[in-house]
Design a protein that fits this description.
Elements (H helix, E strand, L loop, with lengths): L1 H15 L1 E2 L1 H8 L3 H13 L4 E4 L5 E4 L12 H9 L9 H8 L7 H11 L2 E4 L17 H10 L1 E8 L5 E14 L2 E8 L2 E6 L3 E10 L8 H16 L2 E7 L4 H8 L3 E6 L5 E7 L2 H9 L5 E5 L1 H18 L1
Parallel strand pairs: 4-6
Antiparallel strand pairs: 1-3, 2-3, 5-6, 5-9, 6-7, 7-8, 10-12, 10-13, 11-12
Length: 316
């Protein structure tokens, strides 16, 4: 984060010619003491900055110096713009300052630098009840992201869930980090598809340009994909009514599998709950009977009655 902040500070100096510690603190959301340390760090790194004391003072670049960006390689430019993209943890002000750098980049690097800023989406929610497992980055992650940024097709080798390996040519559109897993979103001859990067067995760029829809938005596309996966993982929908003071408890237990509707005539709240099957969902909902009354389907009500009878028989 500090390296990102120092780059943002340098860009601000070039844009405004003079800055105070208070202005930097406000722009980059840090303390004035941190801002002063950052100015000192720039000086130590060899950037020609100096301070003017007293009223109207501040920090300036010696002789209005500007950093020569022509020495950046294409890879360095892309790496810098990954910091400015939606997946970055950098503060909004840092991202905004970094995005201004595109105006100073050599022309051949601009398109790829801008593409880098939108090539990656991070979705912190894991799938369902999957345990969080920290994994090293998949083998072909860098190659696939490079193909997304350069806008070239890839001949992809892929091993499916049954262990069968296939090959196809894909049009990479973006990379998504979902919890500990990585996914490639792309167009294929069969339509939009998503591949787990850890199942990719080979990735060879073809050099042919990607077919990218003009209105494609990676974040929006991933939301649609994730919603569809969630519906497949939890195909059953249960209808119920809930006491108003129980909705917070239901949301804590069920998370995004709960949809809250409108009020009923008796002052309760209509809800829809998604689950995998009737018995498993009845087991979850049995502990919420104080607030919840299931109205359908009948199979879930039957399982709840059976669970209740078993509890009474065992615990009296």
């Amino acid at each position: 984060m500090r390296a990102d902040r120092l780059m943002a500070l340098l860009l601000l100096l070039q844009q405004r010619e003079q800055l105070t510690a208070a202005e930097v603190a406000r722009e980059l959301e840090v303390s004035e003491r941190t801002a002063r340390r950052d100015f000192d760090a720039l000086a130590v790194a060899g950037v020609p900055v100096y301070s003017i004391q007293g009223r109207g003072g501040g920090w300036r670049l010696v002789g209005g110096a500007r950093t020569d960006l022509s020495g950046l390689t294409a890879g360095e430019a892309r790496a810098l713009f990954l910091v400015a993209g939606p997946a970055s943890a950098a503060a909004p002000a840092v991202k905004a300052a970094l995005r201004k750098l595109v105006r100073a980049l050599p022309e051949p690097f601009r398109a790829q630098a801008e593409a880098a800023a939108s090539s990656l989406v991070v979705d912190p929610q894991r799938w369902g009840s999957d345990r969080v497992r920290h994994r090293p980055p998949p083998r072909f992650l860098d190659e696939l992201q490079d193909a997304v940024i350069r806008g070239v097709q890839v001949r992809l080798g892929y091993v499916d869930g049954n262990g069968a390996e296939t090959g196809r040519t894909v049009h990479p559109l973006g990379i998504v980090a979902k919890g500990p897993s990585w996914y490639l979103v792309c167009d294929t001859d069969a339509g939009r598809r998503t591949f787990r990067v850890d199942r990719v067995s080979s990735a060879e760029p073809t050099g042919d340009p990607v077919r990218r829809p003009d209105d494609f938005d990676l974040a929006e596309s991933w939301r649609e994909i994730a919603d569809e996966v969630d519906r497949r993982r939890t195909p059953l929908e249960v209808r119920a009514t809930c006491a108003p003071d129980g909705t917070a408890r239901l949301r804590m237990v069920l998370g995004d599998r709960l949809e809250i509707g409108g009020p009923t005539t008796d002052g309760r709240v209509e809800v829809v709950i998604r689950g995998y099957n009737e018995y498993a969902l009845a087991g979850e909902l049995a502990g919420l009977v104080e607030w919840l009354e299931v109205t359908g389907p009948a199979g879930v009500r039957d399982h709840l009655a059976s669970i209740g009878s078993a509890l009474v028989e065992r615990y009296g």
